[in-house]
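My hope is that you will study the record closing this message with an eye to the fold:
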Amino acid sequence: MQFTFKLELTGLSMEDRAMIDDLMSRYCSARRFAFNRLLEGNTVNQTVHLLQDTTLSLNWRYFEHAAKDAEAMIESQKELLPLYLSDTYDKIESVEKALEKAKKGSQRLQSRLKALEKRKDILKEHVMNGTLPKVIFGGRQLFTERVEGKISRDEWKSSRNDQVYSIGQANQKGNANIRLSVNKIGINFPHKIDERKTGKGTIRVKNERKWFSVNVPEKYTQYLENMLSSGKAYSVRIVRKDGRYFAHVSFEIGSPQLESMPERVCAIDSNPEGFAVAIVKNDGNIVGHKFFRDDRLVYASEGKRDEIVGSIVKGIIDYAKNNNAGAIVMEDLNMRDNKSFRRKGNRIIHAFVRKKFAENIMDRSWKEGIPLFTVNPAYTSKIGDRKYREMYGLSIHESAALCIGKRFYGYGEWLNGPIAVGRPRERVPVQYVWTSLYGYGSPKDPYMEPPGRKGSVGKNVGGNGQAVLTGRPARGPLIRDEGERKGGECGGSPQATGNGVKPAPQGG
């Protein structure tokens, strides 16, 4: 996962602003060109070679980063299309219900329904064909205002050419085009020169680096110093907003290593309406529990929801520290497109639980130096409800959190009776849930999975023909490498640095 902080460029003269604006204009033109070439079926490398034949006069790295930036935009749009389609279905259902309640047919609602049906058909076609709707750089709203003459041509061009991006490279001391120091930022400004042949190829531009002062907030000073001293790769996006210039700096982070098995862990069960936390000892007993609930998590706007998530995560970390938890354990849960959720539920799970909370908890645990782990959460709610809810007076979510903590330590679960769990094409009664499916990897379980058997029905126990569920072991600590990819580059998109993985929690 990446950690991002924002710095502001200060003391810029009119000449400095003109240079940065010109670089942004050329970069954004390159990105738009690359976007269209990629949609035509060209690869990133082919697109970079096509960019070199243009008159934009950028160096090879800027061209490559513009192509990768465009590629990330395309992938993001393709991932969001099903979500947009789901939203459209929900809106259609809402309008249809409003029409049913209306005593007389509402012309406004009927027009709205017709527009939504048209949008649904367009999105369905794009999803089925793997294509994208028309993309307007600068924003559709501003484009409409420009067509209507409400904004000037310069304002429209300014909205389209407002950033430049450089991907970090570990073999270039962090970043080749945009370099940081403790209180300064150096930007490469390529300019055209007469072509000359060299052993490495044809040189068309010369780089001129200019340094600018940056304002580093005190809370980010230590992170910046540690990043620079480690020599790790970092990516930088320079953005212009309301006449001010900001540098968004991103670098890869990972969870601290465990020197020994902690005596206590803070186990978390996440839900759309809140988070259940259980403090679990290494003997499998619970010593504390709390539910962090906020109903606004489902219905609040995105900005407000981010604030709520950050507040809850801070509360969870403080609760873990106050209870001397040596690690945090959360569920390794991929609930997206789960058939048990309706479209609205899938949207909430995708937009919130899997992204906002995961990013915040990993970010905060990294800052506090607390290791973060994941375990498979399958059937924790069923087991917790059957075995621990009445025993300890817990809610169903808190009892599920207890099961997650026990799995980290490698404890299996004997139930007072078999429960039916889903298997391919059948339902299997299971009375003992094998810890090798879920645990951290402790060898204490006498029913460890035989080599080569994954997800199979294992040894019968109890003499009553009850099956033992087997499967893959849980993942280890959330450790990220520092991002040595091809050519030493850090990240393949604006959303990911280091090894280019998605920011959702993954095992090490």
In short: The first strand starts at residue 2 and ends at 10. Residues 60-101 form the longest helix (42 residues). Residues 12-130+162-251 form one domain. Residues 421 and 427 are 6 Å apart (CA to CA).
